[in-house]
Structure formats: structure tokens, C-alpha cells
Amino acid sequence: MWRSANHWLTTSVLGIPSKGRVVEEFEMELPIPPYLFAFAVGELDNREVGPRTRVYAEAVTQLLDSAAKEFDGTEDMIREGERLFGNYEWERFDLLVLPPSFPYGGMENPRMVFLTPTVIKGDVTGAQVVAHELAHSWTGNLITNKTNEHFWLNEGFTTYAERRIVEAVQGEKRALLNIGIGWRGLNEDVERFKDNMELTKLKNNQEGIDPDDVYSQVPYEKGFQLLLRIEREIGRPAFDEFLKKYIATFKFKSIDTETFIDFLKANIPGIENKIDLVLWTEGTGIPSDAFEPDSSVYKTIVSLANESVNGRMPREDEIAEWQGQEWELYLDNLPKSIEASQVLALDSRYKLSESKDYEVKVSFLQRAISCGCKAYYSEVEKTLKEVGRMKYLRPLYTALVKDSGNEDDKVFAKRLFFEARECYHPIAQGVVEAIFGKHM
Ligand SMILES: [Zn+2]
After folding, report:
1. Is 7 annotated as a binding residue?
2. In angstroms, what is the span from residue 133 Cα to ligand 1's centroid?
3. Which of 73, 363, 386, 387 has the least C-beta neighbours within 10 A?
């Protein structure tokens, strides 16, 4: 455990070397659950980006400079979080940019969040992952779920808190687009679990189950939906007040769903008569009073994607303000019938396969594989060998072994995995193996 993250790299050597060893001691005075305890070892350097934030990364000047630029607005987000959820209790909020094999977008280790380098895109949109990890400082790190069966208490609250921070910092339109993307993800995962509806419950039975095997959007997005449902019932000011009280009451504790529900009922009398809390927390699927988002940006993009069946491509003025998220949505919604020639035309106009933004590049490559555009296979190979983030491995390997329906693609996928495997995190290796197991 570390005394203070701003010192831990340089001044915390308290022991004396003996037999070629150095003993280091760190002290963390605030209680944290064991899953939030992490080590980072490497030749690291840092840049200061705010009064309580430094960005750490391997000592490569260009990486550090672009990371510092990308996360320049972090202090604004911390202040927004404090306004919404109460004091930031962890003193420091430092960021560590890891090598590209890191399998997640981010990990919310208190005082020093771990991040994939793929969030550095040069246009400050990477701030969204930071907003999520920052939100965990209140929901997840301050109040933790007692067991993984109540995981939604971590991620549902954090998704809600993240979107409130995004709304405050980047505007309502962006927050609503995120809700739209989340809603689609929730519906897809509920469909994916149609043979195991237990996993569509907020509070579910995970006896004998490896949580990594059943990871989904359900705790994030259905949890978010329940909190939004309550907010819409009692109004935002009352809900904000409730949230602050909830956080202040249970901070530095681990709780379960029942504790939350009891607290909710005690503080908002009669809420159980307006919202079926048992159905929401113990029922399967998506309750009918969930909020189906109505984002105009979302709709415009989906209808543009549908128009591609007539050979229509979005015009420069239509995509002028698009960021990675918009492109990803557009590409994901392209009809299955789209032809390889259209994919090639789209790329020659907008250079998507060369995008520095992995969300865009991977969504594009996924479409290219599904259409059998062999021209992009060297780019697919390069991508799968340079990053290990599961968000990219999953769609690309799935496209190769399932969507394309081509035997050569399966052989290609196997060879790639054989050559890249050692560079992937063990959890990511397991995910790829599971995809192979299911489709080969
Ligand atoms: Zn999270």
C-alpha cells in the first residue's frame, strides 16, 4: 500500500538493501477492498496536469506529452464530481498510462487510476474513460459491493455518475448519445443471455461462476436505468440530495442490494409503490418502465447508416463534428448487406482504416472482415499484434471466426492468436480462447 501516490515512486524507500534486495514500505490509511490494490513496475516518468493530478507513463517524451494534453481537463471533472457527490476523499487522483497490452479501458485503483494508452486520441475524448474511473472514487471505491452478485452497485452507480460528469463537462447531447449507446448494448446483452436469463438480473446468483465469463453490460446499463428511473420519479434535485446522503452514509463500507433498497425506502417513503423495486433488482430482462433514450444525434447516425443500402455515403458536412463514438455507431449500424466496394469507397474518402482512434479503426476493420475485404487483413494483423484491449480483441476475433464464415479466416485468426498470445493479458487470452471454443 502506498503512503501518498505523488511520492511513491521516488521517496518511499524506507528499508535498507540486504542481499541485493530493497525493502519498501507503503502505508495506505484509508480502507480499501483487496481488488483495488495494484502494483505498477516500470521506468516511469510523470507530468503535472492539475493540483492533485499527475500523469505517469513510460519515460517516452511523446507519450507523456500527449497524455498530459489529453487529460488536461481532469481537475474540472474532479470539481464537478465533488459538486455532485461530495468531497473527493482520496487526496490524489493520479493517472498511470500502461502499455498497450492492458486488457481494459481503465481500472479505478484509488489514488492512481490505470489506463490503456488507446484512450489517448489527441482530441480529449479519452476524458470519458477518465470520467468513469473518477466516478468510481465515490461509487465503487467509497461504497463497494459486498460480493460480485451485487456488482451493479459498483458499476450501475458509476455509469450514472460518469454520465452526470460528462453532461456537466461535455454537454447534454453527448451524455444522451452515451445513454443511447448504452441502451443498445443492454438490449444486445439481454438477447445474448436469452438462454441464461439469471444473468440479466441486477442481483444474480453466481455460485460456481467465474465473473470474467459472464461480464456484460447488464450491471452497468440496467443499474444505470434503475437509478435514472428513480431520478425521473422523484426529480433530479431530490435524487441528487439522496445520492449525497447515500454516499456519506455508507462511505468506506461494503454493502449489498438489500442495504441499498432499505436505505432508499427509508429516505424516499412510498417509492416502492411507484417503482417495482423487486422486479428491477431481482427480475429478468428490462422492465417496461425503463427509459428508452431519444437522442437526435443517435437517430441521425442510424438513419445515415441505413441509407448506405442506396449507396449513399455521409457527406463531409454531416461528419464534421463526429468523434470516435459517432463513427463507431455509424459503422456498427451499417446493414449486413453492404458490399465490399462500398466499404472500400468509405475508407478511401475518410481513411478510417488509418484512424489513430482505435474505436474507429476497429469498428471499420470489423466491417471489412465481415464483407471479406482481404485488402485490410494486414492492418487487422498489425492491430491484433499491437493492442491487447479486450474491447478490440473481441470484435475482431469474432468477425474472423464467426461473421465472415470463411475457413481461411479461421486459420488466419488461429495463426494471429498463436503469434500474439504472449503479449495478451491472461484474462484477454481466456476471452479469445472462449471465442474460438464457441465458433470453431
Ligand atoms: Zn467501472
Report:
1. no
2. 6
3. 386
Helices 377-386 + 407-420 axis angle, to 10: 30
Burial 387-408 (b: 16+ CB within 10 A, else e): bbbbebbbbbbbbbbbbbeeee
Task: Find out if CATH 3.40.50.2300 is the number for domain 34-137.
Answer: no
Fold observed for domain 144-282? Neutral Protease; domain 2 (1.10.390)
> Tell me: the pLDDT tens digits for 126-144?
788 899 999 999 999 999 9
Residue 220 φ then ψ, to 5° = -70, -60
Predicted pLDDT at 16:
53
How far apart CA 397 and CA 380 sit, in angstroms, is 10
Q: Is the CATH code 1.10.1530.10 the one for domain 296-439? A: no
132 annotated to a ligand binding site: yes
The pLDDT tens digits for 4-19 are: 333 333 334 444 556 6
Residue type at 409 in one-letter notation: D
Q: Is 381 a catalytic residue?
A: no
Q: What is the DSSP string of 258-282?
A: HHHHHHHHHHSTTHHHHS-HHHHHH
The separation between CA 98 and the C-alpha centre of its own chain, rounded to angstroms, equals: 16
